[in-house]
Amino acid sequence: MVMDDEQVNSIVQFATGMAVLGLISGMIGGMARMMAGSSKKASTYLAKTEPPPKRVVTVTCPICGKVIEVGEYDSVTRTEALKRHIEAEHGFESHSSEHHSMWLTSEQREALEKKYGAVATRWGEEVAAVGDLAMAEKAAKVFYEKMRGAIGIV
To answer: Which of 45, 71, 41, 39 is nearest to 58 (CA)?
Structure first.
């Protein structure tokens, strides 16, 4: 289909009119927002002395079910707060503040998972110091019993 000059001119006129209308609408909208804005100066907003609201971060102990509030969340993680709680309340001591992830051998892990399941074994591994298999098993047993009790399996 071939367009003649008259059709092209009418399309260009329509497009130009729409562009001008959009530009004018944008300018009017911007002016309306400026006129309806607050009469307060920006410095009054910046001069507020109230601290920002503190967000409450919590973690639930898998052993006792207690909800632990992590007060200084910016400097302490949920994992660290839970670890401190477990050490203080349940007697599982970690001999180092390092994160000891996945230190069980595959044979040790397989044996513990058969008894207590993968989740309880992993939590027991996290609580115990590297190489302390007896403590990892003790912790895994406690976690396993608590999980069974939580879902009603006797």
So the answer is: 71
CA–CA distance, 62 with 73 (Å, rounded to integer)? 20
For the chain, 154 residues long, give each residue's pLDDT as a single digit of tens.
666 778 778 888 888 888 888 888 888 877 777 777 655 555 555 666 666 666 677 878 877 778 888 776 666 677 777 778 877 777 765 544 454 567 888 899 899 999 998 888 988 888 888 888 898 899 899 888 888 888 777 6
Cβ count near 94 (within 10 Å): 19
CA pair distance 82, 61, nearest whole angstrom? 7
Task: Please say whether the beta carbons of 128 and 94 come within 8 A.
Answer: yes
Q: Domain ranges in the chain? A: 57-150
Residue 72 burial (CB count, 10 A)? 8
- Please, are residues 77 and 68 in contact by the beta-carbon 8 Å criterion? no
